[in-house]
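Question: Now follow the chain.
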Amino acid sequence: MAEQRPSRQELIRRRRRSGFVGRRGEMNAFRENLARDPEADDHQFLFHVRGNAGVGKTSLVRQWEAAAREQDAATVYLDDSVHSAVEAMAEIAERLGRQDLELRRFDKLLATFRQREHEAQSARDVQTAAEGAAQPPAASLSGSVAAQVGLAGLGMVPVVGALAGAVDPQQVAQGADRLRAALGARLRSHDDVRLVMDPVRVLTPVFLEDLAEAARRRPWVVLLFDVYERTGAVLDEWLCDIAFGEVHGLLPANVQIVLSGQGRLAARNWGDWLDLVTEVPLEAFTEEEARALLALRGVTDERAVEVVLHLSGRLPVLVHTLAQARPDSAETVGDPSGTAVERFLKWETDPSRRAAALALALPLQFDEDVYRAVAPPEAAEQYAWVRRLAFVTDQAGRCRYHDVVRAPMLRLQRVQSPARWAAAHEQLAETFRAWRVQREEAVPDGERWGDALWREHRSNETYHRLCADPRRALPDALAEVVHACENGSGTARRWAQLLAQAGTDTADEGPAVWGERLTVASRDDGSAVMAVLDALLAHSGPDTVGRLLARVARGRAHRRAERYESALADFSAALVLDPLHVDALVGRALIHQQRGNAEDALADMDEAIRIHPGGAWNHVVRGHVNLTAGRPTEALADYDRAVELDPALDWALASRAELHRVQGRYQQALADLDRALDIDPEYIWAYSERSRCLGHLERWDEAVRDMARAADLDSDSEWYRALLADLLLDLGRHAEACREADRALSDPDEDGPRSRAWPHAVRAWALHGLGRDTEALADLDRAASLGHGSELAFAMRGWLLWEAGRLDEAERDFGRALSGHPQWPWAFGGRGAVRLYAGRYEDAVADFTRSFTIQFGMAEAEADIARPLVELLREHLPDNRAAITAAIRLGALLTHQMQWPGVARQAGSVLALRPSPRLVTGGFRLLRRAATALADPPGGADTKRITWSLALVKPLLRALAPWASSTDRVSGD
């Protein structure tokens, strides 16, 4: 049976129940658009309702929302309570969730963002200490072995680990950490850092994917953004991108967007798309529309109608308000020049209700708790009546007066009795203070500015203190703006607008000027936070505390942006204001450290710890500064103290573990890292550090496992994946290394080109190990073109060009590598080999000697093995290049390779090239001399490995005996 359609009478009753009169053309246009196929040519993508305050924009938008819901649409209405794209997405997700359309993946990622943002906030101010700490004195996992070996010491290790004898993978990893950890060492992965640094770019694609899933379950999803004149400055770019662009993903066709505000859309963002925007300009009611509404409300007396039309100026909100009490005669309307109370509450005869309505104009918004705090006792049960007033908008339990009505009510109370005005606002301020203090019992001190409810109480308290006494409250309010800046641009904008609103409502120039100044600054596209801090410090107004806080906050911002001179100036200026300010001391210490002034940094950290000896973070910072100053013993004492003060501080444990590792205390390092990972099972740096420790203990499978875990946790970044590839190269597992390097480079260059050179170089070396030199050269060309970190690519390419006989190009590349790293033995060794083949023997001796002096710390007179090596190689140059290359590779394999099964396989392939036994024997005699020259190397394990390597050489050399002449035979020595 066909569904029974409603009667005309039922439709009339529905329309009368809504109380909405007029705007029929606008209502019909919206309904007709919902009736269209979203793919139709005449479908309207986006509506923009605009008009002056009071013309009924909100009422129309609300009616559109109701009409959409009649069509089974999911709807979300947002007003100026959102101050950023992230807040808008969060609100949309929350409102859709109430309609059984949860955005689950987005909600999960948003929760992660909020947690990571808090972690970054607590750790970001000490992260630079780790960045500036001295690099470990011992070589890395792959470099530590090659560094103690003769041929590797010359740099001749072109087919094993990508960084062997050249760049410490730990240094590369720390460089990668610096790129990702600018917001704090505690962030678990590159995903987290991207999430905190650029939440809109990370959250929006997931938001759009989930929104698309929700849109598949409803005919329409309608998103309505009201009061857009206040939020457009911060939402324009994001909304324009999701509505019409493809920056973040695709918006489903059945998602309808509605904007409503006083002015036109900004041409800067919307100019290219205005042909796709349907403008809906609203004016005041026509006289016929106003009369129709009055008739609907029972106001039919002609003289009463005339007075209402005159008082309201036919503004819809005022027509609704004045018609609500249904005046039945001209006498009940009274003098049209009456006060605000006479205009809007003329026909309310209950004095308690009138008093309650006036009192509720004071707060920016209210709920039942606020109502009971300000309403007279006799009107305590009249909250439902207030919510029904025509000028009250109820949004998710939060009510607010329309500005057109609220403004004259405030003016009336302020002018009639300034004393009562101040007392009422002071009472409200104390009410919100009490709620704020109550909330603080559940929210730790460091997390309060990130807590929405605490922040709401604090902002309302600040507003009412400004209204009660603007001059006295303004300095504290400006100091709070600094705290708001530390919580992000959205909170900074909210506080700037708070001051502006207080200035308007009090008619006081102080908060009005500051509110306008900071609101303009907060719209800065580049850095709203920095612009607001600049504005605070550029003008008088903040007291000493406010200027101190602003200096420290701006110093931190400058430091994060690597503007070290400006940061130093701000921290120093803060310490002039308060020499005992710990945050300023720590901030300045980090700048001194970054600039290489370790002693100045230590002086500041010593003073900070003297003032606050119980701060575990400060001890970790001083530990890193002590490393910078070459004082590992003092650094260890600081790390010990930090762990004693806070056993759950995983960064302190990981920092101490790193120091244990570089000093050879591997078991102690592993114990600390295990504890750190118990605290945070997803601590990426701890996994990477543990992999290095396990490598030193030759527990290779476990080392690979932990580095793979780090790479999996850092799924959106190439760095730890490339570190894993490099470790696999060290183990002779070239095919696996190539696959991991492919994965490292599989994602788009979202972080920009400077982070991509090293993974290309790692993959090139894996390809080279597989004999795919053409592809390897292509990767090295790409790496070299990226600029940052390209010295490694130049050196690698030099080796490949040398093997290909392109000597001039090879020497040029080694020169480029040395221009960036003038003390690089691997590059000196490579250039020496090139000059050897070019017949420039003295130049070759000089380069090899230089390589030895750097690698082994020898004096030039002690590095005399370079000349006999050149002489040995020189006699084989004309006709035995492949054998020379094979001998060099074999020496590198036997002395550098990490995992001996890999050595056996590769040694077999090298021997198949039939290298000269004399060359191999002579080379290893030189190797033995190099090992002897290292009388007391840093690590006993490295000397042991050299001896082991030499012992392994003997049977291989004997195997070569049949190929050698009688004079070249290998003895059993």
Notes: Residues 882-973 form one domain. Confidence is low (pLDDT under 50) at residues 122-188, 333-340, 749-755, 890-973.
